[in-house]
Design a protein that fits this description.
The chain is α/β, with parallel strands linked by helices. It has one domain: Glucose Oxidase, domain 1 (3-Layer(bba) Sandwich), CATH 3.50.30. Helix content is 19%, strand content 37%. It contains four helices and ten strands. The strands form two sheets. The chain has a seven-stranded mixed barrel. Strands 4-5 form a two-stranded antiparallel ribbon. Helix 2 runs parallel beside helix 3. It is globular and about 40 Å long. The protein starts with a strand and ends with a strand. The relative contact order is 0.28.
Amino acid sequence: MEWRTFAVRMGILIMRFVGRVINGSNGIVEGIALVSKKRISFLGDVDPDKGIVRDPKSDIQGRYIGDKILIFRGGRGSTVGASVIYALKKNGHAPKVLVTVEADPVVIAGSIFSDIPMVVGVDERILELVKSDQKLIVLIKGDVGEIRVSI
C-alpha cells in the first residue's frame, strides 16, 4: 500500500500509512502505538489473562497490549491464536486496533470473532518509522484504513 509524509496546518509534520480494512466500522480511533518488528503468535506469546507479551524473544516482551494500537509484521503459529485474541477481548485486555504489514488468516479470524478493528497491508516502513508509545490516529472509511502519526 502507500505511505507518505506531508505537512498540515501550523507546521506539524504527519506520516500517513494506508492499508485495507478487514474489520471495523467507519470512524476514528485514537490511541498509543505498540510496535513489534516481529510476527506474533498469540498462542504462547501473549498471556490472555493479563494482556502481557510473555515471549522472551519478542521486542515487546513484558509490554501490555490492551488499549494499544498494536502494529506488527503479522501473525505466526497455531490457529488457536484466534481464540486467544477472543480471550483478550473477553478479559478486557484487547488492543484497540490491530495493524499488520502482512495479512494472516489466524489474526484476521481473531479480529473478526472479537470485533477488533484491523488494517492489513500497511507499508513495512511503519515498523521502522512509528515508535512504541507514540500517539496515533486510525481513520477507517469503508475498506480503507489510514494510520496517521505526528512527528
